[in-house]
User: Fold this.
Amino acid sequence: MMNPLASNLNKQIQEESSYIYEMLSELGKQLYYPKGILTQTAEAKQKASRFNATIGIATEEGHPMYLPVLQETLSFYDPKELYDYAPPAGKPELRSIWRQKLLLENPSLKDKSIGNPIVTNALTHGLSVIADMFVDRDDPLILPDKYWGNYSMIFGVRQGARIVTYPFFTDEGKMNISDLKQTLLAQREQHKAILLLNFPNNPTGYTPDEADADEIVQTVLEAAEQGMNLIVVSDDAYFGLFYENSLSESLFARLANIHPRVLAIKVDGATKEEYVWGFRVGFLTFAAESPAVLAALEQKALGIIRGTISNASHPSQTFVLHALESPDFQTQKLEKYNILAARARKVKQVLDSGKYDDAWSYYPFNSGYFMCLKLKSVNAEQLRKHLLETYGVGVISLGETDMRVAFSCVEEKDIKELFDLIYQGAKDLT
Ligand SMILES: Cc1ncc(COP(=O)(O)O)c(C=O)c1O
Assistant:
């Protein structure tokens, strides 16, 4: 039997948008945020002026109990900002500053209706919340043939999504939007698809330009007009690291509110953008015309968060909030951006020397942490092992021909030597 709170949320969504209701998975339909301990605690926080004996933490003299061995290393921070639970949706100040950041960095969001970012345990968790809410067995997940491998686990293994890929690039080195369109429309009979857009892309480091972005939006619109319900997820893990003339805002901003059959969702976070990989702070943001739908989707997301991790790390949220509020934040972020941009330029310069052209070509790249070689005559995995054993060089092999190089972790001065060694390795094997 469905919980009455879940039925209410479903009704709320259905009344405003039958399409978004149809997009929910079986699990998504069952989800609700319980009026349990947390609701009562929140009420008590407002009204229990004498004794508040609701909360599931231990306190002392009005602050959370803590061990001095911990606090002495974290003394910059008020214990209240570290030890207590963060709300399941995340620290309100952090959600609000991230929302402002989204609006500032994505001008097309102006006048669009989007929800408040919900804090997740970084992007992987945000993606898994989406999989739980919207993916049933055999639902098609549309991806380019170059994608982050963990999508298979998050969507495929966990929820049974059927992964369908399209060739990412044409032979001329442009994004292959016509194959994307064909692949998407081929799923028409199912009336539902999850389209995952990841720019800057892992593994290739590609972000589309304005013209391509327009074409992607048109493609989504066309599929929606043909009666498909589309959950379009922008995985913006590497957002902001744009080095050339690509689009510099998220496609989420362009896709938000474009059609009642399109549910745009943004997954992003501090992980790569603010260089805090281990902190595990990410965000999940929905776009829908109706505030009631946004509210109901948030409740459902909170339900699955409460039922899995309960809430994300409070200290991590506090650290990220502190950084975002700091007057030095933008300057320091720009410094790191400049380092990565210089490396990306150096990689292009080294590759464009012509010196390696008999061994590989490379896929288009203009953003992010990575670039990807396409080997001409050696097997990628064989070369990877050889490089590791003979030259002490570590790279990632992907399939038969592709080799991912993370210039995010190679100093600019070492880039030429790195590619010289990869080239030497390839020569050894031919
Ligand atoms: C495209 C993409 N999305 C998501 C993630 C996961 O990010 P997080 O560490 O925030 O879970 C990664 C990390 O490698 C990634 O490359």
Observations:
- The mean pLDDT is 96.
- The chain is about 45% helix and 15% strand.
